[in-house]
Amino acid sequence: MSDSPIAIVQHPEHLHHFVDAEQQRDAAQLGMWLFLATEIMFFGGMFCAYLVYRYWYYNEFAAGSRSLNIYLGTINTAVLICSSLTVALGVRAAQMGNRKLLVILLLLTIVFGFAFLGIKGVEWYQKYEEHHIPGRTFNADDLIRDYPQIHIDPRPEQIYFSLYFAMTGLHALHMIIGVGIFIFLTYNAWKGRYSPKYYTPVEIGGLYWHFVDIVWIYLFPLLYLIDRKPLR
Amino acid sequence: MFDNFPLWPARASAGAGNVDALFIFLLALSAFMCVAIFAMILIFSARYRRRRGIEAEQIEGSTELEMTWSIIPMVIFMAIFVWGAVIYFHERTPPRGASEVYVVAKQWMWKLEHQEGQREINELHVPVGRDVKLIMTSQDVIHSFFVPAFRIKQDVLPGRYTTAWFRATKPGVYHLFCSQYCGTMHSGMIGQVVVMEPAQYEAWLSGGGTSGSLAASGDTLFQQLGCSTCHRSDSQGRGPNLVGIFGKPVHLEDGRTLTVDENYLRTCILSPSKNIPSGFKPIMPVFQGLVSEEQINALVAYIKSLSAAPTGAAGGPSLAPAGSRSQNSKE
Amino acid sequence: MSEHVMPGRIYYTIWIALLCLTVITAAVSFVDLGRFNTVIALVIATVKALLVVLFFMHVKYTSERLTKIVIVSAIFWLFLLLALSMADYGTRHLS
Amino acid sequence: MATVAVTAERENYLNKEYGIRSWLLTTDHKRIALLYLASITFFFFIGGFFALIIRLELLTPAGDLVQADTYNKLFSMHGQVMIFFFLIPSIPAVLGNFLVPLMIGAKDLAFPRINLLSWYLYIIAGVIYLHCIVTGGVDTGWTFYTPFSTAFSNTRVIEAGIAIFIAGFSSILTGLNFVVTIHRMRAPGMTWSRLPLFIWAHYATSIIQLLGTPVLAITLLLVVFERAFNLGIFDPTRGGDPLLFQHLFWFYSHPAVYIMILPAMAVESELVACFTRKRIFGYNFVAMSSIAIAVFGFLVWAHHMFVAGISLYSALIFSILSYLVAVPSAIKVFNWTATMYKGSISFTTPMLYAFGFIGLFTMGGLTGLFLACLGIDVHVHDTYFVIAHFHYIMVGGAVMGYLGGLHFWWPKISGRMYPEGWGRLAALLVFAGFNLTFFPQFILGYMGMPRRYWQYPPEFQVLNVLSTAGSTILAVGYVLPMVYFLWSMRYGKIAEDNPWGAAGLEWKTSSPPPTFNFDETPEVTWEAYNYEQIPAPPEVNVER
Predict the structure, then answer these.
(1) Considering only residues 42 to 71 of chain A, which have any Cβ-Cβ distance to chain C shorter than 8 Å?
(2) pTM here?
(3) Please, what are the domains in chain D?
């Protein structure tokens, strides 16, 4: 979200209003960290809603959580962790001035990003087929049938799925933006615009990617692992 | 002052005087602060206006002064807080034995039902000197029950009960406003509270034909909906025995302990899975959408009547033995 | 500033640790531990987040105190939102 | 025309380039500030126009001027326009944008392109909102309370929500830019303890913008999702809690009041120091009170919900915390007043606004004590008492500060002086009109007149007539400055570099400043408000 990627492509040294390149780099980093702070509060609003309703409707949350595909969820977590590794290694490659490695790692990250979104799409499609999308077509009869031990009220069950779609949807939106940023970074890296002296865009783009990863690290247990223990 | 230019609202409830007293105290305090600050500004402006040859004197500041004007206000604020909190606590705690009025708000109308069974729209008749507890819910959006003369206000929410209470002290007709914006005719959602002398009130009560008390219609409904097949007044039913439970703690299957109040009963009717008393199976059907707000009110009133003291006297938690339903269904 | 280039080994170690923790958290959720299921899930998530922040995001190696202040205040603000909201929801049944 | 300089003007940010492109693609913080100035003035008059129709409708108890639905839309859009499109960006995006780099000796904000992006976001939001107004408007009140906004309103809630969502990001980016700039771009020698109090208050404002606004963004987004995609997060028919929306909404919207008032306090400190020719009394306390307001401001939000059905105990917690935030505000008022002691006070237009600010903010603040007080709030909540209170803060406080600051820095911004006599007249009109408009509303509120009423019982009429009368005076007071500011851009007296003899780096460069602010980066060796070292201008009090 910083303007420095564009800016610095055109002015390899630093922009006129900065004293030197270091000041510019510090500013860009601080800017990204502050932006991530606002992102924490952005997701925080939904975490607050989640906390309240999980406290109120634990049974419905438990049943909804059971209905998610834990295998796909776990695989997706692993995919994101792998993408974080490639990002971190990418920054290292940029630090060392290894252009070819940098491009490969950035491309890998994009591939992982698409893999995550693809798997997420499959999961959403399953939810669609199960009529678990909130609204008029919503139907929780299968949950009531599958988990007779958990007493479920179908109305608040919709709240769980509303939160599920809002949270994973906005997370996916962040992933899409992240993939966009990384396509941009890959292009510039391929053009050889980053060097050990100047790789701030890769670094702050990486910060953003890691942040989106961390959000998922919390979403995974909060949405998928509420209650998986054997039913009595 | 003039009839069409009043500057102070009528004071017609037991609590109104307390609110006014605190308000007047705050007014005096504010007036004092304003006068003090404005006087300082005027004096300084006159005394230290710019003159040729006279320079301003640079003063760094004074920690003692800063502490003084931080701590003294803080102490005063805490006093105001405590005073306000006491009034609020009083306003939010209906006295035991208050007579109850169930309020259902909808766009753009107030529907009120006395426990004796009288129904009113946009009008509430109450006698002087009786504690009245309002048990309110909304059919659609958020409304707010506001009677300026009583200094009470409480938002009325869809999906749950909120309560308020007052004791009228002066006969008269007072405004009942909806004070939470609720759509097109928000400003038309005005009713009136008619406060009457007890004798007149009794006359008014006996005037309107009613179909019996709210609890009695709740009883009928209880049979019609088949509640009584499980909730029996002995311990043999598949559902909990409802006699004498109101106001008592209930232990739930998941380990929580709640107190049975109006909201608890409401939740149990509409969404039984949320609170399952320990020792019972979650087998009760969901009644959301099957009963109207008025019917829920009647059921709640009926279940509460099962816990009323046999004499109907105010005060003291009921110790009515199980099985005393018939004599209590009417208070 | 994190000019300092870290050895690649560290990244791989963290990566392995993160993958292991993911498998552990998924597996543990199938074991009935009562309330501790939630606690463990959140503790593991926090450990994972910390690993990412400290190593992948280089916060451990930064000399910049401000970054840490920004992170801590954002989390603190989130805590304020959650805690003061729950001050209402957690006490509603009492009044 | 005699005032036009004969000699070639010095190159400055205004005459460096000409043409529409040079404005719309500028990254100069000063030009962006002027872009903001023009756009928020436009929205201010739209919001003001709504307000005047509202006041005219309330002349009579019956609803006879406009339909009920129209009235509901008018007050909703008045609130949304004034808050999200005028007050939130007013001082930060105009004066802050112009002055923050100048005051700390930087050439520009840290991210000039993001600064421009933030203006474009504002404009996109504004265009969407205008479209919403023209195609039917929105009637949810500025607060968007659920379930009315999600399930019952038939108006363009989605559009309004998206517009405000985008405007929120504009505000976030402005705050982000300020924080980074203040941390990273200070001139050599400009330590934290030498920063003008203007900077301290803007720093505090930016913290709120950064940490509060995203919560509003997600809340409105969830409302939009609920309307558009049938999600059910706030829906009571599916077991949702309408109060959850209020919690999330006020988590931002209470601190948002401080986004509006802190920058006005920022201006106030500069004005009081300059026109008493003194260092602000208790610099450290005034600086820290800004930060304290920003932090404590986040702890008090549920005092908007004392009658909404929150638990008794949380009401007690939020009430006691609300008093916490009153203390730093009181500290500021006391310190400004104390600064006047043994000063050398002149009564220019900006200082008149500064006096007005102290007076009106004091009254607004004191009535805030009534509302934080549980027992009183139950009675006055959602009545005209609240309306009067927050207009005293937002109009009496924030707008007075904004106008005072605009007059004070106008010579720096435009290079021209405004006409002093007209300026003082306008300041007096605004003050008198404001009090006549809003003071009667305190009485109306305690009498029990609820807010957002299109028709009302006849006993409230006299006070409403007074209020409407005041609003017309207020309107004149607001139109006047716009007229003479425009006039002065061409015919005003050429301003000197430092016409007020004020301290601060912004006065050390030329008026208007060159594009990169300073010919060479200044090195700061003095404390803020070193008025003992600056000679007072002899003519400052004389009208010409």
Answers:
(1) 44-45, 47-48, 51-52, 55-56, 70
(2) 0.93
(3) 20-533 (1.20.210.10)
